[in-house]
Amino acid sequence: MEAAPPTALGSRATRALELIDRLCRESLDQGDATAFTRLAGIGAELRTFGVCAGMLTDTPPRRRRAGH
Q1: pLDDT tens readout for residues 16-55
Q2: Are the CB atoms for 10 and 61 separated by under 8 Å?
Q3: Beta-carbon-side half-sphere exposure of residue 30 (alpha carbons within 13 Å)
C-alpha cells in the first residue's frame, strides 16, 4: 500500500476487509473462536480507520450469498 497512489487506497482497504471477512468465515468453519475474535477485531479497526480517513463509506457493502 505504501507505494500506491492515494486514490487506490480505498479499493485496497475494501479488498483487505473482504479478505478479513473470508478469513473470519474460515475460522468459524474450523471452530477457531480465538482466530475469529482476533480477525474480527482487526477488521473492525480497519473499517473504522477507513471510514474516518474517508476511504470507505459508513455503509457496509452488501454481502454476496454463498455460491454466487
Answers
A1: 999 999 999 999 999 999 999 999 999 999 999 999 988 8
A2: no
A3: 11
Determine if residue 34 is left, alpha or beta; phi over 0 gives left, psi from -120 to 50 gives alpha, anything else beta: alpha
Pick the residue with more confidence: 23 or 4? 23
The C-alpha atoms of residue 11 and residue 66 are separated, in whole angstroms, by: 22
Tell me if residue 60 falls in helix, strand or coil: coil
Q: With cut-offs at 50, 70 and 90, classify the pLDDT of residue 67.
A: low
> What's the grid cell of residue 48?
473504522
